[in-house]
Amino acid sequence: MRGALLLLALSACASAGSTPEGSAPRQAAIFSSPETGVLLGERARAIAAEIAAPPASVWLAVKKVYGDFEIPLTVDNPAAHKIGNPNFYKTRQLAGQSMVLFVDCGSGMTGPRSASYRITISSLTDVIADGKGGTTVQTTFVPMGQDLGGTSSEKIPCGSTGRFEAYLLDRVRAALGVPGK
Question: Which residue from 4, 91, 92, 174 has the fewest beta carbons nearer than 10 Å?
Fold first, then answer.
């Protein structure tokens, strides 16, 4: 029975597949069985802000902040209003801050898992004109954790604390010299 449960769990993780460039990962299946159905991880949600600056200026500020955070840009598509990276990893720190501030993968015997796990991240930002001369900036941050020291190499769904998205938006405002709300 234990082997069957392991096989089902691995099948659910393996079926997640890859995502198209520029799209956030879908809600991750954690476990599936005939008795319980499919258990799903937290659905990605975006955090948005209105910034009183033209979209072209905001675009350049977002690009600068991603560079400051040492996040390689693999999506840089002004026509689709999307910038970021849907698949990169960091360990222990992100944007010069402790990973624990931004990512929640639960806790183990030694404390928060995000402090030691390799965190695979999708961070995508939409920069859209608001029709009033300003810009709507919306960031989606989706982390997955992987214990490199354990026996399993599978990634587990983690949650965002919401602090990374707010930090990115604050840094964009600061780059533009625009006060926050």
Answer: 4
